[in-house]
Amino acid sequence: MNKFSGLSHAEVKNRQKHDLTNKTPNRSSRRVRDILRSNLLTRFNILLLVLSVVVFLTNREIMDAMFGIIVFINGGIGIVQELRAKRMLDQLTILNAPTVKVIRDSKIQEIAVADVVKDDLIKLSLGDQIVADGEILDSENLEIDESLLTGESDPMPKRVCDQVLSGSIVVAGAGIMRADKVGVESYSFQLASKAKKFQRAKSELVDGTNKLLKWISWTLVIVAPIVVWGQLHTGAGQWRSAVIRSSAAIVSMIPEGLVLLTSMAFMLAAVVLARRKVLIQQMPAVETLARVDTLLLDKTGTITEGNIKFHAIIYDDATHFSENQQTEPIFQVLATIASRAKSPTNNAILEATKQIKNIKPAKFTREIPFSSARKYSAIEIDGEKWLFGAPEIIFANDKRAKMFREAQKKANEGYRVLALVKTEKWSENEIGEFTPVAMVILAEEIRDDAAQTLQYFAEQNVSIKIISGDSPLTVAAVARSVNMADIAVFDARELPDPIKSPTKFARIVAKYNVFGRVQPEQKRQIAEVLQKAGHVVAMTGDGVNDALALKKADLGIAMNSGSAATKSVAEIVLLDNKFSHLPRVLSEGRRVIANIERVANLFIIKNVYSLVLALAVTIFGMAYPYLPTQISVVSAFSIGVPAFFLALAPNNKIYKPGFLRRVLQFSIPIGVLAAVVMMIDHALISNSNIILNDRTAGTSVGIVVMIMISTVMIILSRPVKGWKIGLIAFCLVAYAAVLIVPFLSEMFRYDLTMDILPITLIMGGVGTVLVLIVNKISIDHTETVTSFLKKTFRIGSRTK
Fold first, then answer.
1. What is the per-residue pLDDT for 594?
2. Which listed residue (293, 298, 546, 554) is catalytic?
3. Residue 517: which of 416, 390, 637 has the closest Cα?
4. What is the pLDDT at residue 322?
5. Considering only CA atoms, which of 284, 204, 215 is closest in space to residue 253?
6. Average pLDDT, stretch 3-20?
């Protein structure tokens, strides 16, 4: 490889000047202009601003149009919070940015992937993800896995002059390539753009919220003209009053803070986890882990530390290595094999060879590099041919051999065992006759937090399955060491083809929880069959052999110490490689889901009672009771303030599928009930002998709804704690202050008189009792209501 000099410094600068770099749009972080646009230029914000301007031009009273400020308050909060989160996460992403080795000015340099330029010479080694399209200039038994791009699972050998595509993975050998197409010109970027290959983590919250917003938008399109028409006819020619009250009715049906609070909850979770060295590469990934019911674990680097240690050598006569034995020839063979690729196993062997004086890798004439699919490597030194790899593969036709039995014994004790044999001939697909020489015994240290973490997930009813390329006996021993319950072991070499025997394959995957000798493609197939069975699957891993399964799983979790390919396809990266962070990620996901469900209930209740009330006053020919300023105050203290604190509060409620179904099941009956009580109160006040003005009806109805929503807040806040009672009390006291403090009541157009108070308090009390009754009925008849909602709204409870 010394024959390559690469680009000069001047040539690199010239390509950078002409923008021939590998920079691409960052899909895991939004641009500032996108953040501004998404927080300000929404259909609801535009509608609020238009209505605010219309009300101001109609009445020339700035306070009546103050609800337009909601746009800038919500937008400002969202922009500030998202920019703060973006800055922190971008800094973390930069620190964790993948790098690549290039040859420039005849020197090997390690640079960021984005800094690669056209015509750069890139060094390729095991576990690398290819970052640009190009041509192979040098190949040392290079094998490439293109399955993430093409779906073809078989590794492809690459020789000089062969083409390689960005996004593919080096699974064996090494080489040098020239970057011909970089950045947006690369195949993987074009595929992602045209075929929508890139997918964000699935989110029931985001999907459910988007459905709600879609339904509300269509409701506004249909109902708004009806309300305007009704208020114009009711106003008896007073068009200004009709416009103002119509605007109040429409404003009350807009869920102005729901999207903001959903986004903030995700961002807060991402920031909290970032401080704990957990990088969230896609925001909804936090929620996804809370929905996970099956966790697939690779053994090495997840349950174990990943730092493999040399333990011993056992020779064919079953004697152990000691310093006075003549082992230099064997160690030289091992050193040569181990020097061919960097991996924890090879590093441990190389470290052991340093203990023998003058042991260095020898020159070789031919080799077959190790790959996860083959499970062995081969090399020819001075005319002698050696095989080194998994005993189950090498001894596949001679399982009665003494060395194989000894290997099984050591594997059953939890050691990783590799066999070294001498053979007369070999090929990439066939092992000929051989002579056993030695076994290398390697030890892996179990993570201190592994047993506790697995126990936590078991207590949370998350099914654990260990899928590893190691011997089934070794994997089972590790599972026992972390106190995994009900261990059922299966050798993945016996797995049937999932295409030819899908039922049998699915039955085996469901029955067993420890799999050994699993091929990379089988890991992906296991994740896929579990998903088809209705499970939400997470996969953790660190090796290139885990990349396919990480991509296929609903949630991919990679160790920072893992390969670049693994980290590139994962939604979550554990930056300090601590498996024990996962319970905190689960906790944050549960907090987000449970809290957004709480606040969504508040918003939808308001939307429902506003819709029903607007239609009711139109049908009965009555003026809409609220003025715009009044509805803004009611919304602030019954929805805005409590929703903000409840959305960000601690909450470890166990996730249950059916977010949207439960929200509608709870909110629609109570929203309709609130509208009926408000309408009755409005009718009683309007038809009484009380002297009324344009503020009286809104004052009375506002008090009624505040009393009812306070009861709803208590229900949604369970388990009720001191600070939640304090929050509800604050909202009630603050609203009362607006009613009784003269300058506040004048500012917000309230007029509280003793004449309306008896009727108002009675209706508020009646509404509270009815809310409690409806809630009790809803709990007792969940299945009946669920069935009704499914038929009416065609909402499925199944969440992938």
1. 84
2. 298
3. 390
4. 40
5. 215
6. 91
Residue with tokens 């050691």: 415
SS3 state of residue 61: coil
> 3-state DSSP: the chain helix, strand, coil percent, rounded to 5?
55, 15, 30
- Look at the block and give the residue holding tokens 């002698």: 384
For the purposes of burial, counting CB atoms within 10 Å of the CB of 38, is it exposed (0-12), middle (13-18) or buried (19 or more)? middle
* Tokens of residue 733, six digits: 């006291």
Instruction: Tokens for 341, please give them.
Output: 């690729």
Residue 222 is encoded by which pair of tokens? 């249909």
Higher-confidence position of 506 and 318: 506
Using alpha carbons only, give the angle 403, 409, 410 rounded to the nearest 5 degrees. 90
| C-alpha distance from residue 177 to each of 159, 166, 174 (Å) | 10, 11, 10
Helices (H), 512-657: 520-532, 547-552, 564-569, 582-619, 628-635, 641-648
Q: Which residues contact 742 (CB under 8 A, 6 or more apart)?
A: none
Tell me the two tokens of residue 523. Answer: 């890991």
Contact, 253 vs 611, CB < 8 A? Answer: yes
**Is the pTM above the cut of 0.85?**
no
Those residues whose C-beta lies under 8 Å from the C-beta of residue 524, and which sit 6 or more positions away, are: 153, 548, 549, 551, 552
Percent of the chain residues topping a pLDDT of 90 = 22
Write the single-letter amino acid at 151.
Answer: G
Query: Which two tokens mark 375?
Result: 């499970």
What DSSP line would sit under 366-406, residue for residue? EEE---TTT-EEEEEETTEEEEEE-HHHHTTT-TTSHHHHH
Q: Which of 501-505, 576-580, 734-738 has the lowest mean pLDDT?
A: 576-580
Length of the chain: 800
Question: DSSP readout, 728-783?
Answer: HHHHHHHHHHHHHSHHHHHHTT----TTTHHHHHHHHHHHHHHHHHHHHHHHHTHH
User: Active-site residue 298, yes or no?
Assistant: yes
Amino acid (one-letter) located at 580: S
Alpha helix (H) residue ranges in 253-378: 258-274, 285-291, 328-338, 344-353
pLDDT surpassing 80 at residue 48: no
Per-residue DSSP letter, 41:
S
Residue 774: CB atoms within 10 A of its CB come to 16
pLDDT of 625 above 90: no
Which element (helix H / strand E) includes 712? Answer: helix 696-716
Q: 539 near 557, Cβ under 8 Å?
A: yes
Bridge-partner residues for 541, per DSSP? Answer: 558
| CA dihedral for 349, 353, 354, 358, sign (positive or negative) | negative
Position 384, amino acid: E
Least confident of 268-277, 291-300, 461-470: 268-277
The pLDDT value recorded for residue 780 is 56
- Cβ neighbors of 766 (< 8 A, separation 6 or more) are 677
Sequence-separated (6 or more) residues with CB below 8 Å from residue 330: 313, 420, 437, 438
Secondary structure (H, E, C), 218-239: HHHHHHHHHHHHHHHHHCCCCH
Distance between CA atoms of residues 675 and 672, nearest Å: 5
Supply the Cα-derived Rg of the chain in whole angstroms.
33
Model confidence band, residue 138 (pLDDT cutoffs 50, 70, 90): very high
pLDDT tens across 154-176, in order? Answer: 678 899 999 998 888 888 888 99
Instruction: Quick: pLDDT tens for 727-760.
Output: 999 999 999 999 999 989 988 888 888 888 899 9
How confident is the model at residue 200, as a pLDDT? 47
Q: Which residues contact 477 (CB under 8 A, 6 or more apart)?
A: 411, 412, 413, 414
pLDDT tens track for 241-278? 777 777 777 777 777 667 777 777 777 787 888 888 88
Q: Are 617 and 230 in contact (CB under 8 A)?
A: yes
Position 135 confidence tier, pLDDT thresholds 50, 70, 90:
very high
Instruction: Give the other-Cβ count within 10 Å of 570's Cβ.
Output: 28
Q: What angle do CA 598, 601, 604 make, to 5 degrees?
A: 150
The residue assigned the tokens 């709990």 is 779
Question: In which band, very low, low, confident or very high, does the pLDDT at 582 lie, cut at 50, 70 and 90?
Answer: confident
